[in-house]
C-alpha cells in the first residue's frame, strides 16, 4: 500500500479516527509528533550552543511547538519560546496543556520582543494545516518578520501561511527545512513552493497506511518501501528472452548522445536485448560507445516481436510525424513517448487517439504545455493531466523535483527520490530507457513507471552524492545497478 496524501481539512478526521483506533489521546499524538521531530533534529547534528527560538501560535501547531521546546530543553539546548498569540485563553486544549508543561526555566516572550537580526535557529510553529481564509494583518507581520530572520528557519508541519492543498497567494514563511507529519501536505510538493518549503522531511507519527483507506484522495506519495512489490522476480532458469527485447528510437545527426543514453539505460535496467533505430550514417557512434546495442536503420515491417518501444529523445522532427503514425499502426502495446515525440504530438493532436492505450508520455514542464496547453500553476497542471489521462487512457510522468506519475484512472503519485543535481542534459533520456526497459520485462505501465521513476531518482542521488553539481547523465546510468542492490532486487 502506498501513502495517501490527504487534504488539510481531512487531517482532523484522520487524527480522530486514529486516536480512537489506538485508544490514545490527541495529546499523545501531539507528543508523538514532537518526539518524531526530535528524532529528525538529532539526525541533523545542529550545534548545541546555537540559540533556538520557538515561535508558537494558538492552535495545535503551536502545541507541537511547546512540546518540541520542552523536549529540546530536556536534551540540553538553549530554548526561548515566542508567543504569536494574545493571551493563553486562546490556546487549543492540547496546546494549552503543553503550554503549562513548559519548564519554568524557558523564557517566554511575545514575538514583538524578538530581535530578528539575531542568528541561530527559529522553529516555526505559528500556523499549521489549520490555516483558513486570508492571513490577518498581524499574522502577515509575524511571517514577514520571520522571513527577515538571519539564521536558519525550520517549519513544523508546513511553513506558516502556506495553504495545505492550494497555491500560495499571500505571504508565507520561507523555511530552510520543513518537517511534516504523517504525510506530505500536497502544496509542499508543488515546484512553485520549493523556495518556501526548503528541504522536506516526513515524520512518521504511527498512523498506518490502512487508516487512510476511508479517506478519498487521488494523490499518493511513493517511497522506497513501496518499490520491491512492483518488481518481477526472475528464476534461475530465466534467459535473455525473459528480460525483454526493446526498441529505442532516439538520436539524429548531432544528437546521438540521446540514443546512447537511453539505450544504455535500458541495458543497465536489465533489458535482455536492445535495438536502436537510428540514422545509418551515425551507426559508428553508437556501436563503438555501446557495443551491446543492435542498430536498425529502417522501421521493421513487423513490430510485434518487440516487448516494448521507447521513442523520442533527440529524434528531431523531419518526417517524424510519419514515423509516429507507422509505429501507432504497427504496434498495439503500451509504448514510451518522450521529448521530440511529445512535441510532435503537440503539433499533431490528431495522432493522440492513435497512441496505444496505456502508453506513457514523459514530458518536462515545457513539453507538457505543448500537448496540454498553458497552465498557470502546478495545481492546474495536475487537474489538466488527470483529465488528459482519463480521456485518452494514457499515462503521464510530469518530470521535475517530485515527478508526478499520472495514471489513466486518475491517481497521481508523487515521487520522493531524486536530487537537484539531476537537472542536467540527458537525464530525461535515461528515464525513457529505464521505463522502456521495465515495460519490456513484462511490467505493467504502472509498475514500469513506479520502478523507473523511483530508481531514476535514486540513481541520481547515488551519483550526486560524490559528484554534486558535477553529476552528468552518464553518472546516473552508472548508478542504476546500485539501485537494485539498495532495494535488494536481484
Ligand atoms: N496528524 C497530524 O498531522 C497532526 C497534526 N498536529 C498539528 O496540528 C496542526 C493543526 O492544528 P490546528 O487544526 O489546531 O490548526 P493550526 O494549524 O494550529 O492553526 C490554527 C491557528 O492558526 C490561526 N489561523 C488560522 N487561519 C488564520 C488566518 N487566516 N490568519 C491568521 N491566523 C490564522 C488560528 O487563529 P484563530 O483563527 O483561531 O484566531 C489558530 O491560532 C498541524 O499542522 C500539526 O502541526 C499534531 O499536533 C498531531 C498530529
Ligand atoms: K508552521
From TrEMBL:
E.C. number(s) listed in UniProt: 4.2.1.136, 5.1.99.6
Segments forming domain YjeF C-terminal: 223-487
Domain YjeF N-terminal intervals: 11-213
Residues where AMP binds: 399-403, 428
Keywords annotated in UniProt: ATP-binding, Isomerase, Lyase, Metal-binding, Multifunctional enzyme, NAD, NADP, Nucleotide-binding, Potassium
Family from the record: Belongs to the NnrD/CARKD family. Belongs to the NnrE/AIBP family.
Protein name: Bifunctional NAD(P)H-hydrate repair enzyme
Amino acid at each position: 500500500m502506498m501513502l495517501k496524501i490527504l487534504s488539510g481539512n481531512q487531517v482532523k478526521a484522520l487524527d480522530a479516527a486514529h486516536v480512537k483506533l489506538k485508544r490514545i489521546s490527541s495529546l499523545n499524538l501531539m507528543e508523538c509528533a514532537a518526539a518524531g521531530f526530535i528524532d529528525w533534529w538529532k539526525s541533523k547534528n545542529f550545534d548545541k550552543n546555537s540559540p533556538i527560538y520557538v515561535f508558537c501560535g494558538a492552535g495545535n501547531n503551536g502545541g507541537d511547538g511547546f512540546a518540541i521546546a520542552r523536549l529540546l530543553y530536556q536534551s540540553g539546548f538553549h530554548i526561548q519560546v515566542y508567543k504569536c498569540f494574545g493571551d493563553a485563553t486562546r490556546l487549543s486544549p492540547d496546546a494549552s496543556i503543553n503550554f503549562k508543561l513548559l519548564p519554568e526555566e524557558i523564557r517566554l516572550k511575545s514575538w514583538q520582543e524578538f530581535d530578528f537580526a539575531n542568528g541561530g535557529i527559529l522553529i516555526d510553529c505559528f500556523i499549521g494545516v489549520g490555516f483558513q481564509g486570508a492571513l490577518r494583518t498581524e499574522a502577515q507581520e509575524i511571517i514577514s518578520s520571520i522571513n527577515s530572520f538571519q539564521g536558519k528557519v525550520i517549519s513544523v508541519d508546513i511553513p506558516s501561511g502556506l495553504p495545505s492543498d492550494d497555491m500560495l497567494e499571500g505571504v508565507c514563511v520561507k523555511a530552510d527545512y520543513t518537517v511534516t507529519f504523517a504525510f506530505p501536505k500536497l502544496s509542499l510538493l508543488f515546484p512553485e513552493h520549493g523556495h518556501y518549503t526548503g528541504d522536506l522531511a516526513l515524520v512518521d507519527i504511527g498512523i498506518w497506511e490502512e487508516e487512510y483507506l476511508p479517506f478519498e484522495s487521488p494523490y499518493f506519495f511513493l517511497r522506497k518501501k513501496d518499490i520491491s512489490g512492483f518488481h518481477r522476480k526472475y528464476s534461475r532458469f530465466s534467459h535473455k528472452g525473459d528480460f525483454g527485447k526493446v526498441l529505442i528510437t532516439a538520436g539524429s545527426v548531432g544528437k546521438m548522445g540521446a540514443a546512447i543514453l537511453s539505450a544504455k539505460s535500458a541495458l543497465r535496467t536489465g533489458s535482455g536485448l536492445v535495438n536502436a533505430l537510428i540514422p545509418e550514417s551515425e551507426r559508428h557512434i553508437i556501436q563503438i560507445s555501446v557495443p551491446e546495442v543492435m542498430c536498425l536503420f529502417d522501421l521493421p515491417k513487423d513490430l510485434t516481436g518487440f516487448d516494448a518501444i521507447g521513442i523520442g529523445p533527440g529524434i528531431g522532427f523531419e518526417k517524424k510525424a510519419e514515423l509516429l503514425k507507422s509505429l501507432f499502426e504497427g504496434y498495439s502495446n503500451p509504448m514510451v513517448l518522450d521529448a521530440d515525440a511529445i512535441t510532435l504530438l503537440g503539433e499533431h493532436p490528431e495522432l493522440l487517439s492513435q497512441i496505444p492505450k496505456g502508453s506513457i508520455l514523459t514530458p518536462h514542464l515545457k513539453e507538457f504545455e505543448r500537448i496540454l496547453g498553458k497552465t498557470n500553476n502546478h495545481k492546474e497542471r495536475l487537474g489538466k493531466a488527470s483529465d488528459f489521462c482519463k480521456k485518452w487512457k494514457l499515462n503521464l510522468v510530469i518530470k521535475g523535483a517530485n515527478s508526478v506519475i499520472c495514471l489513466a484512472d486518475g491517481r497521481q503519485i508523487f515521487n520522493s527520490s531524486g536530487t537537484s543535481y539531476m537537472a542536467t542534459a540527458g537525464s530525461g533520456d535515461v528515464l525513457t530507457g529505464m521505463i522502456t526497459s521495465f515495460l519490456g520485462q513484462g511490467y505493467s505501465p504502472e509498475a514500469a513507471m513506479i520502478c523507473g521513476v523511483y530508481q531514476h531518482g535514486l540513481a541520481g542521488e547515488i551519483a550526486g552524492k560524490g559528484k554534486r553539481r558535477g553529476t552528468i547523465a552518464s553518472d546516473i546510468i552508472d548508478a542504476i545497478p546500485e539501485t537494485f542492490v539498495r532495494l535488494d532486487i536481484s
